[in-house]
Input
Amino acid sequence: MARLRSGRLTTGGLIVLVGLLLLLSTTDLVATENLWDYLPLVFVALGVWAVVRSGFRNLTGPVMVVAVAGTFQARNLGYLTNQQIGEWWPLFVVLFGVLYVVGRSRRTRGVSVDASDAGDVSLVSVFSGTQRRVTGSGFRGGDVFAAFGGAELDLRDADVADPPATVECLVAFGGAEIHVPEDWTVELDVLSVFGGSEDARPPAADSRGDRDTDLVVTGLALFGGVSVER
Output
C-alpha cells in the first residue's frame, strides 16, 4: 500500500499547490503571474525524482514527463515559441520510440530463450478492454499501454527467465491490472500523476521473507491506475 499512498500524496500535493496558487491569485495577497510560469518545473522535478527513485529502471514515462514539461517551461521563459513547439512536437514521438527500444533492449540483454518460452509481451488497449494470459517459462517482461480503456495481464502461469522481469505500464485515463502468482515478490516504481499504483494482494500473500524480486512494474499512471493482483 506504500506505493498507493505515494501516488495519492503526489496527486494531492499537486492539487494543493494549484489550489494555493489560485487562492493567492484571487485574494491578491501575492502576485502569482510569475509563479504560474514556473509550474512546469514541478513536473520536471517529479519526473527526475521517479527516474532516480527507481534506480533508472523507470525511464519511458518519467522521461516523457520531463521532456514535455521542460519544453513548456522553456516556452514560459522565452526560449521557445508556440510556433516552434507546433513545428517540432513530432520529436516527442521520436523520443518515445527511442525510449521504448531502449527499454526492450535492456530486458533482453544477456538473456537467451528458446522459441517455446514466454519471452516479451506487448498489450495495447485504446478505448476498449484487452486481456492477455502468459504461460510457460522464460518470461522477461513486457509493455502495457492503456488509454481510455483497461488492460489485464495474467502472469499466474508464467515463470521468469532471469529475475527480475520488468513490465512497463503507460496508462492514461484508464487502468492496468497485472495478475501474478501469490509467492512473487513485486516492486512498484510507477510515477503516478493524478492517478495511483498499488499492490492489491492480501497481506498474507505479501509475506515472502527474503526472496529476491520476481517482477518490477515501472511506468506512468496519468489520470489512471496500475494495480498488482493475485
Notes: The radius of gyration is 19 Å.
